[in-house]
Design goal:
The protein is about 70% helix and about 0% strand. It has helices at about 1-55, 65-90, 95-120, 125, 130-135, 145-155, 170-175, 210-240. It is found in: Membrane.
């Protein structure tokens, strides 16, 4: 009997020594979940801000769906991180089950956000169809919200026209200027004497606004997809530690 009693505390000690590293790894993983949640939230908020700024150029609001699912996933990531930290401090089957359940919810949210981001990244050209119409209806008036949006976009994205400056040649605005000028917002900032004359095209921005606009949203949507992949790897690791 004596040898058995002597071995029992030793075996419990060995189990505790094996559990401590796992708890440390779980705590580190939970901190990673917090960081990932904040990064993912930044991607969702950035997409919302970009859309709000360029909403006039989009035919539908469906591009906001990846941002909505991303923000929901970010909230669950932060919540799961706090729960995992609590779980690392105490043993509870109930908390373990809830932790795994939240990881599954996060997986579905991020998978949906990633799939939606992929879909919208492939049809940005059709979603920005109103861009051409707004350039055609440009008046140059500061009272016209569409004209202000066109000027602001050309200055911020450093672009001119839809595809390039030649798109302005078919607009009523160009005819009103006597067939000589494009809006001064097309002028490259390095040429201070630029008046928008088509006789000096080297002083105008060479790229069109549609390409620049699509590149900006492609970057955000790709960022969301990569964050979803990172989240999937973290969740698999966390589920493995619990189970």
């Amino acid at each position: 009997v004596t040898p058995v009693v002597a071995r029992r505390p030793q075996s419990l000690k060995m189990c505790g020594e094996r559990g401590n590293p796992l708890k440390t790894i779980l705590q580190l993983m939970c901190q990673l979940l917090w960081v990932e949640g904040m990064v993912v939230a930044m991607g969702g908020v950035y997409l919302l801000m970009k859309y709000r700024h360029y909403s006039l150029f989009f035919s539908q609001t469906y591009i906001l769906l990846p941002a909505i699912f991303t923000l929901c996933g970010a909230a669950f990531l932060v919540l799961t991180g706090f729960l995992g930290t609590w779980l690392s401090l105490r043993d509870s089957r109930c908390l373990q089950g809830l932790f795994v359940y939240l990881l599954v919810v996060i997986f579905f949210l991020e998978s949906t956000a990633s799939a939606l981001a992929l879909v919208h990244s492939r049809k940005l050209d059709s979603e920005t169809a109103p861009l051409s119409k707004m350039f055609q209806n440009y008046t140059g008036s500061s009272q016209d919200i569409n004209s202000r949006a066109v000027d602001a976009t050309q200055q911020e994205l450093q672009c001119c026209g839809v595809s390039n400056y030649t798109d302005w040649l078919d607009t009523s605005w160009f005819n009103q200027t006597g067939g000589k000028l494009v809006p001064r917002s097309c002028c490259n900032a390095t040429f201070h004497s630029c008046t928008g004359s088509v006789e000096q095209p080297w002083q105008l921005y060479p790229q069109g606004c549609q390409v620049k606009l699509e590149m900006a949203f492609q970057f955000i949507l790709s960022f969301i997809m990569w964050c979803a992949l990172l989240g999937f790897l973290t969740e698999v690791r966390g589920k493995h530690l619990i189970t």
